[in-house]
Design brief:
single chain, 122 residues, alpha+beta, five-stranded mixed β-sheet, 2 helices, 5 strands
Amino acid sequence: MLSLPPAARIWLCTEPTDMRKSFDTLAALVRRSLGRDPLSGSLFVFVGRRADRLKILYWDRDGYALWAKRLERGTFRLPLAGAQDGAVALSPAELAMLLEGIELAGTQRRKRLISNINCEYH
């Protein structure tokens, strides 16, 4: 499993991708189709036409890294709402849920009450 910092930038490509593509071809797809820089440190998620395969491309300080997952049964349920320029921004938590098979379309983030309580320590 990937371990990501909370501030990681993750982009899910909304178009089905040929899962035979590797490092350089996926990096070119990031530049050409998504209009983003594959060397930025962001993670770029690609899903196959049948939605049972997924690849994640990212720049790891000195070269590209590619992470792949193939499901034996079922499909990945992709969140397509809010797509911009062929991609959807995901948080690390949303990526983890996607990889675990949780459908993001039905999940809701609850509002949190932030209190301005003045704490004094004695």
